[in-house]
Specification:
This protein is an alpha+beta fold. It has one domain. It contains 2 helices and 8 strands, in the order H-E-E-E-E-E-H-E-E-E. It has an 8-stranded antiparallel beta barrel with strand order 1-2-3-4-5-6-7-8. A hairpin with a 2-residue loop joins strand 4 (82-87) and strand 5. The longest helix is centred in the N-terminal third of the chain and has 24 residues, at 4-27. The radius of gyration is 17 Å and the shape is elongated. The N and C termini lie far apart (46 Å).
């Protein structure tokens, strides 16, 4: 069973969630003055299919918004190695390359459950904060992010594989989730 495509989509989704979390932590101040910085926690959730997700940041910064996988220029890209957190007071961008690599490694070792047609992985990495805008301009620091991903796949309905799990790369999951949690520090 090939997980190459799914790992790639998952890595992108995870990177987006991580980036959103890190950016959210850096940008999560709901005031009009630059926050003092410090430690933060990030919480995120998505459908694990690469379209980004929602994020909440608490601690030294407190804000909420959405995450999206982007390229170095901050433009949306399904193959980007950065995640952009668009929060209510500005944006924060993080480099998620190491997290994507950790996710791909985890999928490479994943053993699908063929009785339930499900697979899940957990991966962690530290994401550096590379930029910020608005209230988060000048943001720097990092976030250690852990991502847990789960997929429930369909079964073949006809042919020689009828009744078997369909883990092929071009098959959409029946359901999928990605949960992101992390801690970090930010300065402005």
């Amino acid at each position: 069973m090939s997980f190459r495509f799914r790992r790639s989509r998952l890595a992108i989704a995870l990177a987006s969630a991580v980036a959103v979390t890190a950016i959210g932590a850096a940008a999560a101040v709901a005031t009009t003055t630059t926050p003092p910085g410090g430690s933060f926690r990030v919480f995120g959730v998505s459908n694990a299919l690469g379209g980004g997700g929602v994020v909440l940041v608490t601690g030294a910064v407190g804000d909420h918004g959405r995450s999206q996988t982007v390229n170095k220029a901050g433009k949306p890209s399904s193959n980007g190695t950065y995640v952009k957190l668009t929060l209510s007071q500005g944006t924060v961008m993080l480099n998620q390359l190491k997290l994507g690599m950790a996710i791909n490694k985890a999928f490479g070792k994943a053993v699908p459950n063929t009785a339930t047609c499900s697979v899940s992985v957990v991966a962690s990495a530290t994401l550096p904060i590379v930029s910020g805008t608005g209230l988060y301009a000048g943001a720097s620091g990092s976030a250690h992010i852990t991502v847990a991903l789960g997929f429930l796949q369909p079964r073949y309905t006809s042919g020689a594989k009828s009744g078997q799990c369909n883990f092929s790369n071009n098959t959409a999951p029946i359901s999928s989730r990605q949960i992101v949690y992390g801690t970090g520090t930010v300065t402005f």
